């Protein structure tokens, strides 16, 4: 049964078709008490029919249900002088639930106003429904609205949790890539040291052997032995390092630089519940990769800290401005509760964000400031030169 329920959850049209078929069956059972059975059966079929698409086109289906209900009232007035009772009219409550839960309260209120208008027309034309029926209808609509609010809140919570999990996965992948990049940088430095040292020794020994070859053969022989040993050792180190560098990693772990990467990061944070205003000015897609990565990491770490520490309904403004000689990165959030920051200090991986950003900015030859503004907001500001020391 659970598997069938999960199967239906992913196929809303099938589930709503079953609901419409059930209402049709229950409505058709009441045909025996009606004078005009043909008209009754026609409405038994067409009243629940739009419900099949209630979650695909909720507004259109709601309008169709209102029109059909009004037609039922008018045709009943013209034929029998009374409105025909249909069990399928419960679909109006179903549509009220659908609008509130899946579209929004505003659409639900508009639909509820038309429901009141429909009942008012019935009362004025046919003097029905009675007071008891009106009370029952009001109770059903109130119940549908309450259920929609409950399920809507649950769906919103599930969506927020899913978005936060996506941000956590994104952050973990970025950290994994940073760890890989740091290790590869260390290997590259070792490779440079090994090769540079070996080549320097080989050159010096080769020059010495050239001069000592005729006057001092023993010295020349020792120099050549040194050259051979140094070359073999350098070759072994080179093979070991290249073997490590051949390890493949997934392309999706690579950060997406430039304006597109920052926009994607901001959108992910918005989905996690952080209101982000993004201002990008200047050409950001053709700067050096290390500077682009630095900008990306500063924005990422700042927004992650805002999401963790800026309290309820956090907000942040991100400004990335390319100037003539540097890139200005500024992230200002809505401020937070210092006590919460102290509590989060025990979380593994927390508390090192500012240190990591300062180290990255220092490597790039830039300057960084982080602290509270006079109005209580928290600001991270970094100036990264467009040309690094390596250039």
From TrEMBL:
TM segment ranges: 12-31, 37-53, 60-79, 85-102, 109-126
PANTHER family in the record: NITRATE/NITRITE SENSOR PROTEIN NARX-RELATED (PTHR24421), NITRATE_NITRITE SENSOR PROTEIN NARQ (PTHR24421:SF10)
EC class name: transferase
Pfam family, one: DUF7134
Keywords: ATP-binding, Kinase, Membrane, Nucleotide-binding, Phosphoprotein, Transferase, Transmembrane, Transmembrane helix, Two-component regulatory system
UniProt-listed Enzyme Commission number(s): 2.7.13.3
Entry keyword Transmembrane helix: yes
Name this protein carries in UniProt: histidine kinase
Gene3D superfamilies: 1.20.5.1930, Histidine kinase-like ATPase, C-terminal domain
Domain DUF7134: 6-148
Catalytic reaction equation(s): ATP + protein L-histidine = ADP + protein N-phospho-L-histidine
Domain Signal transduction histidine kinase subgroup 3 dimerisation and phosphoacceptor: 183-248
Entry's Gene Ontology molecular function annotations: ATP binding; phosphorelay sensor kinase activity; protein dimerization activity
Histidine kinase/HSP90-like ATPase domain: residues covered: 292-386
Record's GO cellular component terms: membrane
